[in-house]
Amino acid sequence: MVATNYCSSSSTTQKSVEKPPLPRNQTNLAGLYNQGATCYLNALIQTLCFTPEFRENLFRLSAEDLNFVPLSSTAAITTTNQNLSPKVRKIPVELQRLFAKLLLLNEQACSSTKLTDSFGWTAENAVLTFQHQDIHECNKIVFQAIEDSLIRTKEGDLIKNLYRGTTVNCTQCKKCKSTHKVSEDYYDLPIIVQGCSNLEQSLANTFQFSEDLTGDNQYRCSTCQSLCDAEKTCKIRRLPPILTLSLQRFTWDLKTGKRIKKTTRYDFPFEIDLKSYCEDTLKDTNYELFAVAIHKGTPYSGHYYAYIKDIDHIGAWTRPLNKQAPKERITRSTASAKKASGIIVIDPVQESNEEEKRMMIETIKTIISSICDKNNPFAKTNAILEANTDNSWRSNRSNRKYGTFLKFLRDHPKIFELTSDNQSVRIRHEAIDEDVMDVDEPLNNGDDDDNQMDTTTPVDDQNEDEHWFCFDDSSVTCVTKQMIEKHFTQNECAYMLFYRNMNLRRKSTKISDNHHHQTNGISQCFIPQWLVDEIDELNRVLAKQRLIICICLVYREVYENIQNQFLTTIYPGEWFQVIEGRLNVNNQESILPAPFGEHTLDKRQNVNDFMLTLEGLFGQSCTFYVAKKLKSGQFHGISELSVCVNDTTLGKTDLYTYRNIIVFEKVDMLKSVLFGEDYEPIMLKVVFALSDEQPSTSLKKDFLRYIPKCVTIKELKQQLFNEYYQIGNDSLSSPKTNEKQQQTLRQIRLGKLNLEEKNERRKFREFKEAEESHTIWDIGLRDNDTIGIDNRQTFTQSKWKDAALSTNTTSKLCLTIRNAYDDKKMTQTYASNTSIGEVKLVAVSAFGLSINIDECRLHLDDDTDEALLPLYDNQTVDQINFRNETNLCLKPGQALYEEDFLLFIQSDFEPSPLEIVVNQNIKLNELIKRIKMKLRINPEDDYYLCTSTWCNDEGDKLNDFEQSLQTNNLKHGSRLQLVAGSIPPKNHVRLKLSRIIRKYTTPKAAIHTKPFYELEAIDGNFELPNTAQFHVLRERIATMLHDTKACERIRLYEIGEDGQPKSIIHEPTAVTLKQKKVSDLDSSAFEILPHAENLGKKDLLINLVYSKVDDNNQYFEHLLELHWPLKENIIAKYEYLYDHVQRKIISYIRNNLQYSPVISRQSSANNNSNDRNLKLTLARYFPDTAKWKIIDPPISTNPNQNKKGGSGKGSTTVQVNLRNQPISITDLCTIGVLEGEKLTIADFETAYDRDKQKQIELDQDKKRTQRSQNRADNDLNNNTSNNSDGTSKRGRSPQRALKIEVDDFYSVP
């Protein structure tokens, strides 16, 4: 049991530490993480990394060669032109970095994200990393990208020098015997698998056998100048140092029309002589296999991994176990016999034991390293090991396997050093950084032959042909040649073979002789120093993270102790008084004396041990009871804490739930106390509305009742009835009253009373007869609830209020107050009508604090949101909404009174919210001023307040500046945000205005297209009431222009999302900004017209384009504006439009055109009837599609034409509203006008329209292609149903081409 001063640590939690990546496994090699479907790239990168010639030549490129400045370097790259920064050759840089990580970084797997980012495979085209690709195709593309990235460097021919070979095709004419030779370079040789059983047969079919060109396949001889029979052969002229062979396992099945995979057996040798396939002059034709790319799956999906030979012995190769071999008990004699006969001995049990022994040694080393003492006590090391591992030396299992702990340390003298007294142990200095420990030493003495049975010893130079590893994404394991031969066939078959010339054989070297993250011998791999430094820094960070994890594991018990601690308060029995069977707090002192008070316990502690501790503190004669602190402030005894028979812990007792102990020296006072959860008292307020006949003269005026929650409604009614009429208690079980009392009892009713309810019928909810068997807890009665009891015959509704007013319900509450200054606590009983200010005054005096009473305040002491808000000083105790226990906390801060608000202001000036106390009646602008003063903000700067959402985002803006905080819907505890900027007052809007300078079209001749507006923004915003009409805005604009007469010539436009005017604002005199749904900071534009304009609500303003003179002129010549007036209920008919257009065109011809062929053909120029002879065709232009729609006149129909014997008269005309589809005439739409009748769309189309239509079709084709690509991606990502051969039943879209983006380095000097 811990003292009170330690209780604060029980609430602390251990900071979580991010788990670092796993270190390398026993192979000492690193894999690559799969980014989604990058297994093909991972296999290729590992193959390149373990190609020594490629890796070392790549590392020879310095940072200056690649235009790259490492972070650790301060030297700048100089160029011939200082104004131009050189392009970084990103792909070689990231390839160098990834190779260095694979060789040096102490991680189980590395990430290739930076390399793929340098390829251009970013988030925009992430499908490249999540789509299955072909490794052969990837190999060609990666080589091309590396070549392009190394242009004009000293390793610019790296790919060509290592991988480029040459074949020659010889064609000999049988007629003239002339020979024609054509040479061709290759970077990989395609090998035909179909019809061949091994690699030699495929090469012979290609390079040994000749092909006769006869019949339809004759050869055109340049010497004979005719088609002749010929013989064609192919030979290898040049072999590269690294020979790549691509096995063509995927073929096209003509019957099914699908790609299939050939999984027939196909052998390939580990060593091959290619002399018979080459020209005679070629030497050095012996090659050895060093990498195999394996594919498993179907032609459309699958997985790639690689078998790679570690030529330089970088990794630690161990012979893998034969999992299929039957288990055999290997004795010393059989092991020696097999070893003498050359058989490699593999014992799975021995393998498992040695690995477990390694882990044990590593754990002990970690524990000793984490202890700061120079010589670590032997017992302390053993105790920490036992607390953090399962294999402790107290278990029989560890003793049988390793002996005692001291013997285990003595068996490894190269690692552990014991003192002479065997009391301390430390790690030898030379063993601190060693990776391979002396676990191969025998546990007991034996001959040398027996000591060689360890099958996990790394294989060195005695097995040159091995050192094969399987690189499967992040996994790296050891394999043998026999495992590779299994992939001659089956679904997981070889797909690419990588051979290297035997003349390239090199002496075995290692990256490191001691530890995989050291850099000894690093120069043999030519890794640049900047990369070595970078990886060393990463390894230091990883080592630090892993050390933190080890320390956390070692001291896990400390963390568990904190997690299992809980606080318990111990009270003296003298503080309590038994009243009516319950424990009431009646203490004179407010602060618990020692050894009472708060104590920190461990829930894992045994109850009997804890009882011994209590008896030692308080004496054996004391009795200990677990108590629950009620919401009313009283205590209720739950059970007695006593010695248990079994090993029960504190976490399984009532103490862990209720966490209060009362120590009684005398138990005589507890005889009338009812213990147990079922007898927990509920504090109820009782209002009597019974008849006053023979009431009890000794009835208490305090109508508070503490009723056990197990009492039924029927028992409660009987108890209250007997109490009121002073009937004996024996009547509770078997009432023996006179007949009048029995009759009165049947008229009594009991119910829950809610006097605050305005509805008279809902003030009293009577408990029905069926509910009388329920307990008061089950019926829903809780502390501070009010119940009423009345008589059906003598009761009136007004009596409830009178009875409640005459009832004195003053109660007492026991409050526990914690001092936030020093975490001390006090417990005191207060009357329910005591103010918080008085409670605070008593607490300050009891704690002995010398602070001003107005500089501190009380809060609820729990973890709810209400605990953040202080209590008002004028608030009474019974008005506090206690959640569970009656606990308060005294904290520093300004005291709050009746009309005060505490507001939390979040801003960019302070990390934590600003707490400010203000009167709720101050205005909003005054609050903003005070906040600026508190935060020391310039008063001239614009800021406004808005509410804060639960995720700290901006909510509703507060803009009623001249009203109080309550009017702005603020309350006590509101959270606000102070935001830079300004907002308009309530019911006001601000408008952004721009002036139209000019309108133009692109191209200029295409006047029928949507025009572009050149706008000039007006400084400042126009602030207007939202009830203002648009003519007010016109007047403000005219005033700004200093031209009051321009008011009627101003045209207003609405601005669209593209920043261009989209429609004209029609503003009848009755329309306001609010009715037009104008929002704050909406954008509008205006234009000064040469004439006055008044557009009605339904009027339309249409752009007319007129006259295409001849076929050579592809565009319209004239642009006019037509004001088409329409009334509210008038349909936009064709006749109305045609009439207005015709009059507008004729007026334009007369007034603006010098020559009018229409008017000149008339007999009389002044005859208005001749104007009607001008025949026009109208068409609506749609700029989004660049298409025209002819506006046809209405169609006349005869309703009787289908009736038998119809007269054919009475035809009607179908009227079409041109505002609706398909014409959809709107403001600023374009209508083309041409003279003539029955014109077609082709007559209206221009060259611009045809060009734009072609562009739209191209865009649609691109979208269709993209949709097809998306469907293909979904096929790969979704689990669609497949056929029996693994292919999808759904039709496949073309696979996205694999590509790598490379900068242009050809122009780099």
TrEMBL record:
Gene Ontology MF, one: cysteine-type deubiquitinase activity
GO CC terms of this entry: cytosol; nucleus
SUPFAM superfamilies noted in UniProt: Cysteine proteinases
Signal peptide positions on this chain: none
Domain USP stretches: 30-502
Biased composition (Polar residues): 1-15
Region (Disordered): 1-23, 1192-1214, 1255-1309
InterPro entries named in the record: Papain-like_cys_pep_sf, Peptidase_C19, Peptidase_C19_UCH, UBL_USP40, USP, USP_CS
Ranges of compositional bias, category Low complexity: 1268-1285
GO biological process, one term: protein deubiquitination
Name of the molecule in the record: USP domain-containing protein
Species this chain originates from: Didymodactylos carnosus
Lineage summary: Eukaryota, Metazoa, Spiralia, Gnathifera, Rotifera
